[in-house]
Amino acid sequence: GAFTGVFASPSALAAKPLTIGFSQVGAESEWRTANTLSIKDAAKKEGVNLKFADAQQRQENQVKAIRSFIAQRVDVIAFSPVVESGWETVLREAKDAKIPVILTDRAVNVTDQSLYVAFIGSDFVEEGRRAGRWLMERAAKTPDRTFNIVELQGTVGSAPAIDRKNGFAEVIAANPKLKITRSQTGDFTRAKGKEVMEAFLKAQGKSIDVLYAHNDDMAIGAIQAIEEAGLKPGVDILVISIDGVKGAFQAMIAGKMNVTVECSPLLGPQLMSIARDVVAGKPVPKRITTVEGVFPAEVAAKELPNRKY
Ligand code: AHR
């Protein structure tokens, strides 16, 4: 056998359980619930000791959780930052304590990229572009028609809200018939999505042609508001959203949603393997982008049985 001398053998190293402190955004959406489950399941399967903290959509709770993970001297800190900015100080504290940080799902806006080792998640700008491209194709069928679009944004200051807004706007700018007439946050929740859509309908009523929601939960809440206003979602108002949760497939099968752009929450297995590599001193890619598709209503019934979240 190989000579290992005074050093611990690889198997002895493997025997020490890895401790990961994970700060989750909250439980705001069907997507988030699936993401939490994926992380907890992967930790269990991998024998990782997971310290899980729910921040209830508040940055200050995440900062507290990260500080407590530093104090507990976990091996790796992972988190999905609720907003993009304001992380320099606490990430510097983690770095000074020599605890590597892995970002999942949402990115941070920091000038010093060495404050985290890796980011695992989606390309949110591309998701917004995909939503825009679907509408561009749809609009091309009726070149004379104007489309008034209302937009339900995600959490203010969050990477997915910023990026999905920009990606969509970039693509639809090529067609002057596509106009965003109202845009407001629904905080990624069904209840807020419904409430804001009600306000949009009150203000703009029948002249709304398209709803672009930054996630399925807000779209599903808005669908309810559209129906309560006596209009047909998916027909009178086209409904475009992002995530691809089962609820969106059900809404598409019912004819109430037109398309969902996939955003996968199943990041748990990748997080565990990257965390292991980081602790083992192996080089890891700085950015790991999730591979995703687009699902229009026409394929919803066929695809629903394949959906994992
Ligand atoms: O960060 C990912 C987004 O957060 C999902 O699209 C949304 O549903 C969730 O709340």
UniProtKB/TrEMBL annotation:
This is ABC transporter substrate-binding protein. SUPFAM superfamilies: Periplasmic binding protein-like I (SSF53822). The keyword Signal applies. It comes from the Bacteria. It is found in: Cell envelope. InterPro entries: Peripla_BP_I (IPR028082), SBP_2_dom (IPR025997), TAT_signal (IPR006311). Keywords: Signal. It comes from Massilia antarctica. Residues 20-282 form the Periplasmic binding protein domain. Its main location: other.
